[in-house]
Write a structure and sequence with these properties.
Distance between the termini: 7 Å
Shape: elongated
Strand content: 25-35%
Strand order of the largest sheet: 22-23-1-24
Bound molecules: uridine-diphosphate-N-acetylglucosamine
Structural class: alpha/beta
Largest sheet: 4 strands, mixed
Helix content: 25-40%
Number of helices: 14
Number of strands: 24
Length: 427
């Protein structure tokens, strides 16, 4: 298994191109199941999760053509053409779904287009139980008969789906997306109330509109969809990855460096920028993206609580904790989205961080320095938080289980090395 070796202590300085957002790309790819025409997607990141979903879609009958890479400055957003002329198979098997929970996003499109689907339950996950009950509630409201049997979700709508009001009791990105996709082909009007407002949901909705869907309220917590008979092909460029941008902003801050995040969007990162500002890290909008620089001296401890968008993203919680572990003063970090999302804590403590977890909150007492160590992580964002801590630590660190990073960070070592990090992959 690959490892990453880092010698810490060098400031991260330079330009970092921000890739297309994994969490938008996956949903937009799933939307290809809704039409017999070709969906041409650009700015796709080159990541293991994208390949996993491509494999899921291929076995449903989607023809996929990779059409080279576009971009400049070393950034190679990929172009994929997806054509689901016919749905040849409506079953998403356990073997594929268990690799990546987001595979459950084929459920809504398959039921809407083919009238039925059998999708494996994704099962447990390192960051909590993560049920799919809201996805199923939403699809049932649109008229699908849903049954759980043999570890699979069986959904049927032989006469097609119909519009309905779907009121989510809590904000779910995935459930909003599944119901949104299904509703585009349902008969009549669907209203999704308490919809997730994450920019990735907005990106999916905008792509669906290009395909001919009628959606109002994009970017708000109420989406109104008028179902149409059929959707067509479209061209769409995936929105930049706000979590990747936030991660590299922390890399600059934690090492006392200065970076330009090319393509990053301030409107997707307002809360993060505000929190970094309070910690003493200046993030300024430029013509090409965002400029991040730590003001003189150590960063200051600030409290955060993760929340659905536009609140502070749970996907940046671990990275922010790495930053707070070397801040002046203390920081209380509260995780409200996922239980069990503090698995990076014991590993950071092995590098000299002082962190105490009480339920959903972690008290971080900033230290003047961290020390390199051999560490491992159990999920994507936890892994990258250890890379960040290692960039700031004295001496050498080895980060194990790098496959987590490959799921979500395109060219991580190359991007950091180009900015002065001493980082290499050990095969
Ligand atoms: C997506 C992102 C993930 C991010 C998360 C929150 C993708 C591929 N993943 O995950 O990186 O951390 O949004 O921003 O886009 N819940 C239920 N029942 C459900 C669905 C969710 O109880 O049917 C709960 C979850 O357990 C969690 C909360 O709702 O506590 C939010 O989860 P959700 O927004 O659905 O996350 P994902 O879409 O899985």
């Amino acid at each position: 298994m690959d490892k990453i070796r880092i010698r810490g202590g060098r400031p991260i300085e330079g330009e970092i191109p921000i890739s297309g957002a994994k969490n938008a790309a996956l949903k937009v790819m799933a939307a290809s199941l809704l039409t017999a025409d070709t969906l041409r997607l650009s700015n796709l990141p080159h990541l293991a999760d994208i390949t996993t979903l491509a494999n899921v879609l291929a076995q449903h009958g989607v023809e996929i053509h990779m059409n080279g890479a576009v971009g400049d400055g070393g950034h190679a957003g990929r172009v994929l053409e997806l054509t689901a002329r016919e749905i040849t198979n409506t079953r998403a098997p356990y073997d594929l779904v268990r690799k990546m929970r987001a595979s459950v996003l084929v459920l809504g499109p398959l039921v809407a287009r083919a009238g039925h689907a059998e999708v494996s339950l994704p099962g447990g996950c390192a960051i909590g139980t993560r049920p799919v009950d809201l996805h199923l509630q939403g699809l049932s409201a649109l008229g699908a008969e849903v049954e759980l049997r043999d570890g699979y979700i069986h959904a049927h709508a032989p006469k097609g789906l119909h519009g309905a009001e779907v009121v989510f009791p809590l904000v779910s990105v995935g459930a909003t997306e599944n119901v949104l996709m299904a509703a585009t082909l349902a008969k009549g009007e669907t209203r999704i109330v308490n919809a997730a407002r994450e920019p990735e949901v907005g990106d999916l909705a905008e792509c669906l509109v290009k395909m001919g869907a009628r959606i109002e309220g994009i970017g708000t917590d109420t989406l109104t969809i008028q179902g149409v008979e059929r959707l067509g092909g479209a061209e769409h460029a995936i929105t930049p990855d706000r979590i990747e941008a936030g991660t590299y902003a922390v890399a600059a801050a934690i090492t006392g460096g200065e970076v330009d995040l090319i393509g990053a969007r301030a409107d997707h990162l307002r809360t993060t920028i505000e929190v970094l500002g309070r910690a003493g890290v200046a993030v300024v909008e430029t013509e090409r993206g965002l400029h991040v620089a730590r003001a003189n001296g150590r960063v200051k401890g600030v409290d955060i609580m993760t929340e659905p968008f536009p609140g502070f993203p749970t996907d940046l919680q671990a990275q922010f904790m790495a930053l707070m572990s070397v801040a002046e003063g203390a920081s209380m970090i509260t995780e409200t989205i996922f239980e069990n999302r503090f698995m990076h804590v014991p590993e950071m403590c092995r590098m000299g961080a002082n962190i105490n977890v009480h339920g959903a909150s972690a008290m971080v007492r900033g230290q003047t320095k961290l020390a390199g160590a051999e560490v491992m992580a159990t999920d994507l964002r936890a892994s990258v938080s250890l890379v960040l801590a290692a960039l700031a630590a004295e001496g050498e660190s080895i980060v194990n289980r790098v496959y987590h990073l490959d799921r979500g960070y395109e060219g991580l070592e190359a991007k950091l090395a180009a900015c002065g990090a001493e980082i290499e992959r050990i095969k």
